[in-house]
Amino acid sequence: MFMDTKKITELSKLIRYFILKSTTKAGSGHPTSSMSAAELMAVLFFDGFYTYDLSNPHNPKNHRLLFSKGHASPLFYSLYAAAGAVSEDELMTLRQADSNIEGHPTTRFKYTEAPTGSLGQGLSIGLGMALAASNAAGADAPRVYVLMGDGEFAEGNIYEALELAGYYKAHNLLGILDVNRLGQSDPTMVEWDIDTYRRRVEPFGWTTFVLEDGHDVNAIRSAYQSAEKVKDKPQMIIAKTKKGKGVSFLEDKLGWHGKVLDAEQLKIALDELGEIDKDLRGEIIKP
């Protein structure tokens, strides 16, 4: 049973609120890179696709999630806050020296599967996890999800992982490519040409699902549903998104990578997000 689409949209807004508040409090971080994938991850978490026992991170039936774009850690932590697994107070310790809520995910945070941040490595790690799970459980193996950015698709080890995943028919591996067009200082090479990404991925033996609007909750839900039906190939969702989505002066604007809002800018941004139900929470279903 899927969550009401309006509630997913409201949770995505809450997640953006958490992202903006925590990075401004920290004085550093990557809010805009996190905001682009809010709906992609909210649907994954709260529509029942990602199943995970929050009380037992070592449950072998848990699905696995890797943020290959580790700089989007504010999104990563905000998802667990929206699930009620992390308090807002703890979330506001982002990047503090004694905090488990670090600038890039590490295993100090108990729901992190592997440390990430060096771009291009997450798909290889996810492939290893998917193959291990498949060897142990066969067709019933838990799924492994890897969130990637379009900037890291310039990394050669992405293509090594694509090739090996196709060769081994890693049916329980799903890549989620967040094509937000903007890199660290310039647009990416192919910008929003999502068909080029499709043509790069498919020849390695992957099934792809292309989303013209990576913020459309219903389209995202449909893509995850379709991916679950593929039993003989790895899958990749390729989604056109907007960096800084939800705030007009951030959305698809250069110059905001790794830059946080000051107090005045934060107030303007939160006013633009509109009314937020800070008590709203989603549920991560147990396996």
UniProtKB/TrEMBL annotation:
Its cofactor is thiamine diphosphate. GO terms for molecular function: metal ion binding; thiamine pyrophosphate binding; transketolase activity. Keywords: Metal-binding, Thiamine pyrophosphate, Transferase. Residues 12-274 form the Transketolase N-terminal domain. Pfam families: Transketolase_N. The keyword Transferase applies. InterPro entries: THDP-binding, Transketolase-like, Transketolase_CS, Transketolase_N. Gene3D superfamilies: 3.40.50.970. This is Transketolase.
